[in-house]
Amino acid sequence: MAFCGLQWRALGLLCDIPFGTLYTLFARWTRLGLWRRLLDRLIRLVTQQIRA
Predict the structure, then answer these.
(1) Could you tell me how far CA 19 lies from the centroid of its own chain?
(2) How far is CA 39 from CA 35, 42, 46, in A?
(3) How far apart are CA 21 and CA 38, in angstroms?
(4) What confidence tens digit (pLDDT) does each residue in 19-30 have?
(5) Where are its TM segments located (predicted)?
(6) Distance of CA 20 to CAs 23, 33, 50, Å?
(7) Which of 6, 13, 24, 30 is most open to solvent, judged by the fewest CB atoms within 10 Å of its CB?
């Protein structure tokens, strides 16, 4: 997943969501550490699947 502005701008255009709204949401999630927790969880799940 890329965090570049272009992809998020395209997402906003396709869904009729203003870029400022998307930016605010993702900035808040970054500040709260949500991205890190999601990535850590994904790594744990993939590791468990590989070991199974």
Answers:
(1) 15
(2) 6, 5, 11
(3) 21
(4) 788 888 888 989
(5) 6-27
(6) 5, 20, 39
(7) 6
